[in-house]
Specification:
It is built from 10 helices and no strands. Helix 2 runs parallel beside helix 8. It has about 210 residues and is mainly α. About 80% of the residues lie in helices and about 0% in strands. It is a multi-pass membrane protein. This is LysE family translocator. Keywords: Cell membrane, Membrane, Transmembrane, Transmembrane helix.
């Protein structure tokens, strides 16, 4: 359900887009650095889950309808920014005693999974990406419908994105091992993640201000 003539260009474009730093990369890298590879893995899976949901919405045409409504996009930006601010505040409130032994802590991994899912779903740029990017590679030469082609393109995008993020987790997680053994860092790792979430919130809300101006 993908035009083979367009496939090399599509794969090249996706790789180029994956290499551009963005909120998802920042969240996954910082999670891996602060809490270890396991938490980074769950954050990557959360990102992939939201990507699959956005792919389904794009294939069904729902995301296009939302993207055409400026009020809906503004609401998404505000909700997304508010959610990220809450996550940052929760991390800031967590004291050193709450910093877990990450190698055995399943709860933290699940929390970062959920946060990655919702932070991406509430990012209107991700929604617009699926609405504007995938249709560029829908071919009239195929018998498959545009929805079927967008579904196939989105699935390939998500597989490539997950593989890239897993590679990122492995690299950053290995670099972060010495930090996880540092008592001073462990005592402040929740505050570090809080700053990351505040940064993501400002990033998202700033795009809202630029759009309105």
């Amino acid at each position: 359900m993908i035009d083979l003539a367009l496939l090399p260009l599509y794969i090249t474009t996706v790789i180029a887009l994956l290499l551009i730093p963005g909120p998802d990369m920042l969240l996954i890298a910082s999670s891996s650095l602060s809490y270890g590879k396991k938490v980074g893995l769950y954050a990557s899976l959360g990102n992939a889950t939201s990507g699959l949901l956005l792919t389904l919405l794009a294939a069904m045409g729902v995301s296009a309808l939302i993207a055409m409504n400026p009020m809906a996009l503004q609401l998404l930006r505000i909700l997304g920014g508010a959610y990220l601010l809450k996550m940052g505040w929760d991390c800031m409130r967590a004291g050193p005693i709450d910093a877990p032994e990450v190698a055995q802590d399943n709860n933290l991994a699940k929390i970062l999974y959920r946060r990655a899912v919702f932070s991406n779903l509430l990012n209107p740029k991700a929604l617009l990406f699926f609405v504007l990017f995938l249709p560029q590679f829908v071919s009239a030469e195929l018998t498959a419908s545009s929805g079927e082609q967008m579904l196939a393109l989105g699935l390939l995008l998500n597989v490539m994105g997950l593989l890239f993020n897993l590679l990122l987790v492995g690299m950053v997680g290995s670099l972060g091992k010495p930090l996880l053994k540092n008592k001073k860092f462990r005592a402040n790792q929740n505050k570090f993640m809080g700053l990351i979430f505040f940064t993501l919130a400002i990033w998202l809300l700033a795009s809202q201000v630029q759009t309105m101006s």
